[in-house]
Amino acid sequence: MATDEMTVKARKQPEPKLTGAVHRSRPTLDRRYLPVLGTVVVLVLMLIIGGSRYDNFLSGRVMANLLINNSFLIVVAVGMTFVILTGGIDLSVGAVLALSTCISAWMFVHGWPAYVAIPAAILAGALIGWAVGVMVHVFEIQPFIATLAAMFLARGLCYVIAPESIPITDPTIVKLGTRWDLGGGWAITPSGVIALAVVVVAFVTLHYTRFGRTVYAIGGGEQSARLMGLPVARTKVLVYVISGTCAGLGGLLFAAFSSSGYSLTGVGMELDAIAAVVIGGTLLTGGSGFVLGSVLGVLVLGLIQTIITFEGTLSSWWTKIVIGALLLVFVILQRLLVVRRR
């Protein structure tokens, strides 16, 4: 009975009141999105400044040309994103792009049909990417050295195949550069559609497949990825195959843009692709980044060139100066994020 009375009294005691401030969890922004957010801010500011300073800057025609004129760079930057996410680098994409234009132009001139020439040009890029991947993983050569060797190889093959510019008149390539009027000044080309399709496929692959998760895991820590039983070897080779394939496809889109194949095409384009990926928020150390951010980086580079063109009085070298300044700012931002994360 005594025990029952004590139980009843304990139940009747008032609940203790909480004193002091109540701590409520506030939503915080994931640090991974900060570089991409910075890219969006830069892009919006450039649009606002350009729209207020120049007439017709925000017209449909100018914005459509932004995608059309950079469709090949978008495809190359997508492939570069895969490589940098693993902590690697690919210096060969510009030369591989040029090799693709030279192969396709040479084959068209010598009577090869489009259904043979186009796959051959893309396959050449994939083979060079596979060779680089094997050098990086099997022979443990630094990506910088392996891709530098591939760059010299591809550029040398360009001079062998097409020492002079070869015009392309094949109707299939010509159609890739045909503008489709969407009304209101807006237009798109098949090359632009292909670039957007590549972006969608890359986005789904990186974020919704096991392969994509493995890419991020390798960039976060290759040894940890091995201990988790992930297919590190296959993935490291495949990312360079993807980069080479994207460079080969980008070469075809550039051939449609310029209607020619030339050995000096794409000189320095690997630097533009790396700059677009870094400005788009992908960490150079790997493990963090988004393919959509790389697309925004390409659009930022395109807007810089557009503003320089509208200004008229500025030299084209200002494009490189502004890109260099932006790249420096985003690299410093990445470094600060990495230090803070540690």
Automatic annotation (TrEMBL):
One of its GO terms (molecular function) is transmembrane transporter activity. It holds the Pfam family BPD_transp_2. It is a multi-pass membrane protein. InterPro entries: ABC_transp_permease (IPR001851). It is found in: Cell membrane. NCBIfam families: PRK11618.1. GO terms for cellular component: plasma membrane. This is Sugar ABC transporter permease YjfF. CDD domains: TM_PBP1_transp_AraH_like (cd06579). The keyword Membrane applies. The chain crosses the membrane at residues 33-54, 66-84, 91-109, 115-136, 143-162, 182-206, 237-257, 290-310, 316-338. Keywords: Cell membrane, Membrane, Transmembrane, Transmembrane helix. It comes from Cellulomonas rhizosphaerae. The gene is yjfF.
